Structure formats: structure tokens, C-alpha cells
Amino acid sequence: MNELAPITHGDPIAPVILGVTSILAFAVIGRVAARKLGQPTVLGELIMGILLGNIAWYLGFDLITVLREGPRVFDVVNMTLAGAPIDVVASSTFGADTAPEIVRIITGPHGGQVMQVAQIVDAFSRYGVIFMLFMVGLQTNLDEMRVVGADSLRVAVIGVLAPVTLGFAVTRLLRPDLALNSDLFIAATLAATSVGITATVLQEMGRDKTRAGHIIIGAAVGDDILGLVLLAVVSGIIVSGSVNITDITTVIVVSSLFLVAAATLGPVIVRFAASVLGRLDIVEAKMFTSYLFVMLLAWMANLAGLATIIGAFAAGIVLHDSYFREHVGQKEERVVSIRELIMPLEVILVPIFFILIGIQVKLETFFSWPVVTLAGGLLIAAIIGKLACGLGAFHSRSRWVIGIGMVPRGEVGLVFAAIGRTLGVIDDSIFAAIALMVIVTTVIAPPWLKFALARQETPEEPEEPAVNQP
């Protein structure tokens, strides 16, 4: 019986539908479980991805085997199509142990289908990262942050310098065999703070409008911005292959110019687009403008040698519903916001990213003592580095609470690790160690922050007055 017959007579997109939908279904299970346990949804999706990846790989599922190896599989296919022998390319990429299995899958009767599904999942996950950072930027209220700007800035700067310095020192001490590029990138992954996780806890405790709450949110946003610039610098060093002051300066200047250009020219572009689309329904105008704008800035960031997520974050900061008031008539009593329009895309695509990140965590690497020690060292550096940043809040009596609120790494730390893996400076063992650090900081931070807030019978600072919007 010809096993290809059912495939040739069926819809070629059917395997993609099944594969992507199955992965999303597991993400939903993980999200629901996390909600029931009172944990961040990102944690449930990540752990579900780890379980799915390792169990399915052990059972011999070809798709999971390919997804576990990440973009390197696509590189092998591309080099093979360019004329290189697949056995040689696979061996040099994966080593003698993994290469035969990858070659068997790619050259097998269903290799085309497996690679097609894997590429779609990878593409969807990349879209998810873009929309995730776009939403973070969209929810960043710069006016509110200015109220506690000085304290937030100091907390953010310390919150980047302290964990990065400690992370670099720990990596050099525990893994002296690693290249400098790997040390730099590992250290950079400790810079981020998960805005969403901390903000959720503050809202649940009714402390999001206090001075401490504003400092934490402002500093977390500042950490993301500084972390993205740091990511651009480290990526530039890796791509150029050397630590050169001129190259570093160039990357910093390009990053700064890009953000300035996005902030100054972005509103002009958005207003022009809103004017052109003025004849459309306001929902259509907002959706088309938002989608095209975030993709434009993501592409331009990549063109400038930066990560696409930098452009997505900048697009979120620039976009605002007020740009559509003059050009798009609104007869409805309530008009849907940009955030509400984009959220369905984020809800579908972001979980795929976290499931994929979890799939790529290879539990067998934890049987290595260097991996365990590195994970422990990074965890200590990650916690101490963020706790220290509370000292930057000169005018706050809640320095301890602020430091705890900066601890969770969540989604942004995983994004950094995924980029490092794509660049080839983070291998499977290091990736697993970073993932463990992200998981632990994400798990311990919410209950720790709730406990610290609960010990304060009343907020130490009075609530800030609402900030007037222009």
C-alpha cells in the first residue's frame, strides 16, 4: 500500500492545521492549569511545552524532534538545497549523535510535511513575540511614568547593571570554557523584568496606583528598553565577531536614532495612514494601521541591524487611539481600542511561542553538573541583582517591595534566550539553565511580592492622583 496516497488526495494544508492546532491546544491546557493554581499563564504554557517536548520526543514524534532543535534544522535544509551533502551539514550542525535522526526525518517520506508544519509553527511564534512586545509598548503610559521618573530611572539602571554584572561574573566563574560572546549574551538575559506579571500582582493587591507601584512599573518598562538596547549591542558584537568600541558605539547610536525616529516620524506616519483610511470603518482603520505600522517598524529595526522586537516595542509606544479621532468618524457610543483589536492575535500567537520555547528545553541536559551549577548561579545573580535595584528609589519607603517586584523575568527573558540560540551563542545546556532561571523567578516572585505587600497593613505611600491624559 502506498502510504503517500492519502496525502496526495488530501488538502496539503491539513497537516499544518492539525499540527498548529494541537500545539495551541496544549498551550490552552497549560494556561488554564496556571490560572487554577494562581500562577502566571506564561509559566503554565512554558511548563506544558517542556512536558510536551520531552515526552513526545521520547515517544519518537518526528515533529517534536524537529521543533526541539530550533532554527538550526531550517539551516540544514537551506544548505542542502544549495548543494551541500545533507549528512555532512547535519553532522557539523548537530553532532554525530543527533544528526542521523534529523537526516532520517528530513529525507523520509513525510519529511516535507514535517518541515512545513515546523516552519509554520516557528513563523507563528515569531509573530507572537512581535505582538507581545507591541502590547507591552502599547500599555506603557509615559505620562504616568514621568511622575516618578527619577526614581524609576535609577531603579531601572541598577536593575540592568547589577544582574548583568553578576551574571557575567557567575558565568565566567562557573563556565570558563565558554566564549566571551556567550558570556555577554547569558548576562544580557538577566536584565529583563516581566512587566505583566508584576503589574497583575499589584492590581490584585490594589497597589498599582501607589508611588511604589508606579516606580516598579516604570522601572520594569525602563529595564525592557535598556535591555533591548543591550540586546542590540550584544547582538552587534556577535555579528561583527569582535568587541570593538566603534562597533558598540555604532550600535548604540543606531538604536537611539531608531527610537528617536520612531517617536518623531511614527505619529506622522500614523496620522497619514488614518487620513488615507478615513473612509473605512474605524475598526478596519485601526486594525490595518496598527498591523501595518508594527510590521513596518519591526522590519525597519531588522534593517537597521536591531532585533525586530525593538521595532514592535517602539510601535506600541507610538500608537494611540487619539490619532484616529480626527480622521475616522465614530457614531458608536463606544469604539473598540487598538489594544482590544490586537489582543486576539496576541492571545493566539503568543502561547505558541511559549510552547515552542518549552519544547526546546531538553531535560536530559540537566543531568549534567555544569548545567545545574550554572542554573543555580544565574538564579542567585538574577535575584540579588534585582533586589539591589530597590536602593535606587531614594524617595520611597518600599525599597524591599520594589526590589521583589523587579525579580520575575517571564516572557522577555525567554525572548532574549531564544534570540541567543538563533545567533548560535547559546547551546542546549545553556538554554536549559536560562529557562530554569526564568521559571523559578517567575514562580517565586508573585507569592513573594504578595507576602511583602500584605505585611504592610496600609500602603506606605498615598495613592498618586490620576494623571491627566492629553
Account of the protein in words:
The structure is a single chain. With 470 residues, this protein is mainly α. The protein has two domains: 5-124, no CATH class; 125-454, Na+/H+ antiporter like fold. The protein has 21 helices and no strands. Helix 10 crosses helix 13 (211-240), helix 15 packs antiparallel against helix 16 (308-318) and helix 18 (369-388) runs antiparallel to helix 19 (399-405). The longest helix has 32 residues, at 245-276. The termini are far apart. Residues 1-9 and 459-470 have low confidence and may be disordered.
The largest sheet is: none
Count every beta strand, where a strand is a DSSP E run of 2 or more residues: 0
Overall structural class, as computed from helix and strand content, comes to: mainly alpha
Beta-strand content estimate: under 5%
Which oligomeric form is depicted? single chain
H and E order: HHHHHHHHHHHHHHHHHHHHH
Helix content: over 70%
- N/C terminus separation: 70 Å
Taking pLDDT < 50 over at least 5 consecutive residues as the criterion, the unreliable ranges are 1-9, 459-470
At CATH level 2, the architecture of the largest domain is Up-down Bundle
Radius of gyration: 23 Å
Q: What's the rounded overall pLDDT mean?
A: 79
Shape: globular
Q: Kindly identify the CATH topology of the largest domain.
A: Na+/H+ antiporter like fold
Q: Tell me, what is the CATH class of the largest domain?
A: Mainly Alpha
SS summary, helix count:
21
- Whole-number count of domains: 2
